[in-house]
Amino acid sequence: MEKQRLDKIIASTGKWSRREVKALVRQGRVLVDGVPARSAEDKADPLASEITVNGELLTYRKYTWVMLNKPAGYLSATEDGRGPTVLDLLPPELKKQGLFPVGRLDKDTEGLLLLTNEGGLAHDLLSPRHHVEKVYYTRVAGRLTEEDCRAFAAGMTLDDGLVCQSAGLEILSVGEESEAHVTLREGKFHQVKRMLAFRGKPVLYLERVRMGNLPLDLSLSRGEHRFLTPEELEGLRHISH
Questions:
Q1: What does the CA dihedral 29, 44, 8, 19 come to, rounded to 10 degrees?
Q2: Which of 60, 100, 208, 234 is most buried, by CB atoms within 10 Å?
Q3: Domain that holds residue 201
């Protein structure tokens, strides 16, 4: 990998600003391959060099990808005066990295939400031409039927004129309240709720459980997050091309 300035490499972790890196270097607290750095402007290969700060080995990521198990009550935005956003669930060092949500979940919708600072791949994952599937678990009022499944598969035009493409509806249970998985290949505003309401089955609960080939990590409690693995990230790159 091309060499970069130390202050840029270290600041990319989000833990320190470039100004703070300069102070750390002056104090001899930054080592490159075991040797104290002379200047924050020194260059190093972030993948080939062993860089430590305060004795801690630096993990370099060109881009950051985080999986969040979003709880209800948070807005899928970077900032919003109407209430807390999903970034408020992240630690300070991640907040400094310029992360943004990949798509949106409604304030009361829970589940899988990706956050990143890699604009190109995020755009590809959301682009209608790539047809990346989003799968939701939903609980609705009323009895879902095979006729509802056929209506979803055929696509529908809602009362307000919104045209919805073919979508999947897999019924999980039926009763006064029914459960189902909904699979979308597009992401229009409140689409799951609007399609089910059009069928007379208003949504009581909604959770995203999968995006493309990436399922929600069930070991994450609501509000918890983790970094994507290299294999998971490679899988997202594959389905977005």
A1: 30
A2: 208
A3: 133-211
Q: Is residue 101 part of a domain?
A: yes
Minimal CA–CA distance to 193: which of 201, 34, 171? Answer: 201
CATH code (residue 51) = 3.10.290.10
Question: Measured between alpha carbons, how far is 39 from 41 in angstroms, rounded to an integer?
Answer: 5
Coil, strand, or helix at residue 57? strand
By CB atoms closer than 10 A (0-12, 13-18, 19+), residue 62 is exposed
Residues designated catalytic:
106
Asked if residues 6 and 36 have their Cβ atoms less than 8 Å apart, the reply is: no
Residue length, the chain?
241
CA-to-CA separations, 164 to 16, 41, 45, 140, in angstroms, rounded:
46, 53, 48, 19
Identify the residue whose tokens are 């899928």. 76
231 Cβ contact list (under 8 Å, min separation 6): none
Token pair belonging to 35: 């040797």
CB 216 within 8 A of CB 209: yes
The rounded distance, in Å, linking the Cα atoms of 58 and 14 is 11
Spans of the chain below 50 pLDDT:
none
pTM confidence score: 0.84
CB count, 10 Å around CB of 162? 15
